[in-house]
Design goal:
5 helices; mainly alpha; single chain; 0% strand; 79% helix
């Protein structure tokens, strides 16, 4: 019986999980970073042209959502990348889940159900990161 192949399997799985988590973290981080920067830096008329709902809420709420998305994006990447308090990555992912659940509820109340699937996909990706970096494949802090 070849015990070497059996011993390598969990290592390969763990490595594969780390790689998959990094890919999801980067893609999700890029999406939230772009959305956050747009909401934070663009004139509100430009934001409304892209996101019609922004016309119906106070500008400060749009800017706050942008700041939350920006911070969440940085939180998905920087703690794990620098290995300084890498547990913050899971917390950032949880924050983005909350943001996407609130966005889903907001869109449902406005009759914009077509927006909800994208919010749920983003929330599911963030949940995968929260689980992966919180339990399954955490990154060790810098020694």
């Amino acid at each position: 019986m070849n015990t070497t192949a059996h011993a390598a399997t969990p290592v390969r799985r763990r490595r594969g999980l780390h790689i998959t988590l990094w890919v999801v973290q980067v893609v999700l981080g890029a999406m939230f970073l772009m959305a956050g920067i747009m909401k934070l830096t663009q004139p509100i008329d430009a934001v409304v042209a892209s996101l019609s709902w922004a016309a119906d809420v106070p500008e400060m709420l749009v800017r706050f959502i942008g700041a939350a998305e920006f911070a969440g994006a940085l939180g998905l990447i920087l703690p794990s990348l620098t290995r300084i308090k890498p547990r913050l990555t899971a917390l950032a992912a949880i924050g983005l889940i909350v943001l996407m659940m609130l966005a889903s509820g907001f869109h449902i109340t406005r009759g914009e159900s077509a927006m909800v699937p994208m919010n749920l996909v983003l929330a599911a990706a963030a949940a995968f990161v929260a689980w992966g970096r919180g339990k399954a494949a955490p990154i060790a802090p810098r020694a």
